[in-house]
TrEMBL record:
InterPro entries named in the record: DNA-bd_dom_put_sf, HTH_17, WH-like_DNA-bd_sf
Designated name of the protein: Helix-turn-helix domain-containing protein
Lineage of the species this protein comes from: Bacteria, Bacillati, Bacillota, Bacilli, Bacillales
Pfam families linked to this entry: HTH_17
Residues covered by the Helix-turn-helix domain: 55-108
Species the sequence originates in: Cytobacillus dafuensis (Bacillus dafuensis)
Top-level taxonomic group: Bacteria
Length: 188
């Protein structure tokens, strides 16, 4: 015969989801693993990862548009607050509170490229983030690689034959002097 759930047990279940393994919760409540799973489904809290209100390292990496290992590096070496929680039977995830991320990002502005983060995608987004985006758009931190065309190669050779320096050619072609020098080596 099944044991009826009381309000105290339901509250305990809601509090412990995402904090402890379901097997641990079941043992503490003296219920079967299956019984706890069924109750979670009935309460609409079956997906324990979503239930926490936090985001995983992988999800944060996608939102910030960096590699997952970069976020892991921020956690391990640069103090980004993170908690490990076990969901379902044994799967563990590292979770980050969006508020904690923004506090950390404010102190580590040099590590995060705010112009890559879409607006209002990671709430609550502080006001200073928009200012950082605008600053970065003025002074671009990185320049995407732009492939050389055949016409540009010909124009490069033409300018070089006129005796222009790599810096002068770079200004005329909207490229860095290093890029121009390297391309020149490859052509010749």
């Amino acid at each position: 015969m099944s044991k009826v759930w009381n309000l105290e047990e339901i509250e305990y279940l809601k509090e412990q989801i995402g904090v402890n393994k379901i097997t641990t919760i079941a043992k503490t409540m003296e219920r079967s693993y299956h019984s706890v799973i069924v109750k979670m489904n009935r309460l609409g809290i079956s997906n324990t990862k979503l239930h926490t209100g936090l985001i995983t390292i992988g999800e944060l990496a996608k939102l910030v548009k960096v590699d997952r290992n970069t976020v892991k590096w921020w956690v391990d070496k640069h103090g980004l607050p993170c908690t490990k929680k076990v969901t379902r039977k044994s799967k563990g995830f590292y979770f980050i509170d969006p508020s904690d991320f923004w506090k950390w990002a404010e102190e580590n502005k040099n590590r995060v490229q705010f112009s890559n983060i879409d607006s209002k995608v990671l709430l609550p987004e502080p006001d200073w983030v928009q200012e950082e985006r605008l600053k970065e758009n003025d002074v671009v931190k990185k320049k995407a690689y732009k492939a050389w065309t055949t016409k540009e190669d010909q124009f490069l050779l033409q300018l070089r034959s006129k005796g222009l320096t790599f810096t002068e050619i770079g200004v005329k072609m909207n490229r860095s002097s290093i890029s121009v020098a390297r391309r020149m080596k490859r052509i010749l």
